[in-house]
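Cross-posting from the modeling subforum.

Setting up a comparison between two proteins and wanted a second pair of eyes on the formatting. Protein 1 (sequence, then structure tokens):
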Amino acid sequence: MNGNSRKTAAADMLLVLAFGAIMYLPWLNLPVTDADTAYYTGAARGVVNSGDWMTIRGSGGGLLDKPPLSIWPIALSYRLWGESDWSTRLWQVGLSIGILVLTYLSGRRFFAREQCLLATLILGTSLLFAYCTMVVQQDILNLFTYALFFYAFALFWQTHSAAAYYLAWLALSLSFMNRWHIALVIPAGVVLACVIAVRMLGRDDFRIATLFGSWRSALWRTSFGLAIFAVVGGTWYIYEYLHLGRPFLDLFFGRRNLAFLQAPGGRPLSWLSVTYLPQLLLATVPWVVFLPDAVATGIDGLRSARRARRTREVDGLLFSSLWCLVAFFVPHVSAWRVIRYLLPVLPPLSMLTAVSVTRKLQEGKRFAVSAALGAVITAVFVAIDAYLLFESLDATMRPYRGLVLPFLLMSTVAFAAFTVAALWRRERLAIVSMVILAVASYSTLFASVSYKWDQVSPWRSFGLATRSVLQPDTQLAWYRTSGMLPYGVPGEAERVVYEHYAGRSVPFLGDPSELRDLVAQGPAFIVMRDETLLGLLETCPGIDLKKIQTHSTGWVLVLANSEARSR
């Protein structure tokens, strides 16, 4: 690489980093809105409080059925900067920016810089990627390890570098430490697909002599790679087995953790439950308008690999297409259709989309299909906007109107502007407007969540109010309601978010006798429905129940104490 190339690469890196920083860093302090995030933060808090960084436990004290790699960064952040929304999210936003960088670097092994820069813009403004960046779970860390592995794989494919080979093994070991053996399926599947495809084309790219020079060199390098995997990826598992024994094996390798492979039980055999296509359409907003072009480019790449002479671009299209296919179909073995499982599809799909867009721009072709899809999607968004603006929503949904409507209106403008520019034969303007308005729409959404979430949900304000006056002898509890709420347990999803902000485990209470037993031990803050409080005031004489905070959703935070102690 000459001096000009290095300067160009450095400038591109700064552009990618600047884009990621502008897109995500201003919103680090968003409230925790997701029960899974609160679940992870509770485990991280336990790590910091106990000092045990090896045996990870949930907020209730039970063993966590997940490897620790997604917990450790949160715990380290808490240890360095204390508990806050921004310290919860900082490491994950950093990983997301790292994924953008790795996507660019992987693409540059095959494609032109303009295509790779556009791919990072497409990936960073895709709905699923933006959502997962802001919701702290295992998924972004998992995608980072995949992006690192596939960058190392592409580098090794082209240069046969020992360092790239060992980097691939390191990335696999990190994947294993994040989601154990489940995380190895997609990397192994893509590598196998590439080897089979190249061999079918009659090429010798993946022969031992080509990659390693000799069988002896291959044996030594693979042995060292396995050693890296064993040390980095396996040490914690061995330690926990020696420390916990059979319960650890039952937790991580028993039937419960293999349930995701079970056939969907009791679910109707419909198009929505059989395929991930509807989720893919939603995941790629706003770039869903180019999905047909991206698919056509992938198919063309597979055909080109068979009939055209080998070039870096042909290899890149083959690699991206196979990565996309494997990552899309692997989640179909799951018992559930969870949109987050499609996250590994987005980097290669973004690259295919970028290649298709830049080709059309270079060849002066119209965005005819994309413009038609943009018009259809604009009409759908206009209908949704009108419904939210003019329809009378029930009490549970009304608070969400102010939360999502600004984002939907801005997205409508984005699709409409793209459609008009594309029909007007201003294709470059259409792309620029899509990027700018997509960033604006996400900024609108994040701002709405930041400023309006407490109107939708009481759990942050309840939790912070509790923590501000919490004494060592004060207890916390959640009084069960009669209605079944999300996740099959009354109040479970809400309770863990309240627990996150209160900073302490919050057990359930089931009936008035349990409330009397709790209050007999000392004062307690209790979350319950307002109508439940009215009933308890009549059925629990001798207990002083005082409202501390009331929310418009019908939930109240109550200070419970015995009347004798209150006097």
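Protein 2 (same layout):
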Amino acid sequence: MSKRRESRKPARKDSRNSRSRRNERLQEAREAVFAAIEAHKPFVGIFHTVGARAWVLMESKAMPYDIEVPIEEAAEMGAQRGMKVAVVADRWQRHAQTPEGHLVDVIGFPGDNDVEMHAILAEFGLPYRFEKEVEDAADSISEAIGPEQLKGRKDFRDTLTFTIDPADAKDFDDAISFRKLSGGNFEIGVHIADVSYYVLPGSPVDEEARSRGTSVYLVDRTVPMLPEKLCNKLCSLRAGEDKLCFSAVFEMTSDARVRRYTLGRTVIRSDRRMNYDEAQAIIETGVPTDSLSEAVLTLNSLAQKLKARRFKAGSIEFERPEMKVEVDALGKPVRVYQHESAEANFLIEEFMLLANRTVAEFVAMKKRTFVYRVHAEPDVLKLDNLRVFAGGFGYKVKFQKDVASTLNSLLASAKGKPEYQALENLALRSMAKACYTTDNIGHYGLAFKYYTHFTSPIRRYPDLMVHRLLAEYLAGGKSASKEYYEQEAKHASEREVLAADAERTSVKYKIVEFMEDKVGEEYDGTVSGVTEWGLYVAIEPTKIEGMVPVRQIRTDFFEFDEEHCCLRGMRTHKRYRLGDKVRVRVKATNLEKRQLDFELI
């Protein structure tokens, strides 16, 4: 089957320039196909047959050609015409009109919620079920906690301990213990599920966890890194149950200074499972009524001091609300809203940051191979673009030595003003991407010289690697292979990116689905992005973002002014730029492309 995008266009005589552009696009399309073949990247499309031949019809911009597949093999897998399937391109033979490939999964008929969510996972090469071998291996792991399991562990079962998590959480991989010391200091334990005790290197569960790299959080479901017995039962720090942990225990003063700390394996028994709203209610009340509320208030006070000290040292503050989509029992979106973190969230965050930083520094001082979480300095060119853009709003910005302080000052000055979101977006885009590596360069955004991920081994494989390395070094072991762990860190970073892309795609899909019955409705909005092909507009009050294609703006011919990040009318000189207030109408929705189109009013 030929490339449909071109076969549908009527033939016409091209000018030399248009013919050249067409050839460039064809070459880019072919290069994209060869890159996909080399990467074994899966694509999702619709299964189609004509006579004794079969194709997967593609809608992906990344794969502009349909892919022919063996019809007999597809039939054996249960593929039916019109079904969504996942396909991998294998080759593109000389003179063939389309690439050839093979099906890797038959997902189901479009429209069903499970099918659409599984299609997103398949598109990013992410699994959505465990093989029986892995489930059986997890089920066979012993749950016993007796003298043998407690050997060498410090016992915290008589110390006040609790968890604070979202109300709908099922896996609890961190808990906090709190105890007043006689000299006026506090003992604070950050207890993390000891996944490394249960998941042994090279086991079927370990191999699967490594392959996945991370849990994936779609709008309506979690695709866990570990089978349910481990993530929701055995390793989950559920209240009233003895649990094996790996812990960082701190002695802290009332002004949040760490006097000493210990790292090691422990056993705990959580006294209470709290959600963020319950903890926040205690914080807002401000009056202790029992030992638990007293602990929460003291920990919150310490966390606020840790946070203030972190920002004074150069940590960068982005307070972007998280886009949330609420769905019903069938997966249908019923509400879209912005979720903002409260003090209770920051309480937990600060102590997790402290544990991560402490573990990283401990190993770094031993000069051993380790898996760090690093964040490079911002892109200089992008910072300059931000400076020019901010200048258009009257902000005088100079990015010299103290970039973090300048960014924080700029965002603080713009807080509550129409241009704030646009400035924050550009500031975020100037930042490098955090990743895992054995080469420590520090974490720029947090202003930490040493940083790792230690606190979430149930849902992140790098944390599990960190636990294993830490246990080895605490026992006096030699430095691990840097080459091996660098490869593992790179793999984990790649899996993290795929998972994040899948999560964003599921949110985008559900947002478009939420807007399907709102075509024709009008909204106030803010220009949140400007490109050569149009404007992105975030509407009120949900902040849902859609595109106004430049070809749809009929009042003038608009060109993209990259230097000033705006669209400029050639005749009227009308400008559309980030932060501008506009009124839009919902023009169209496209679930297959996860696309939402607006038009300016």
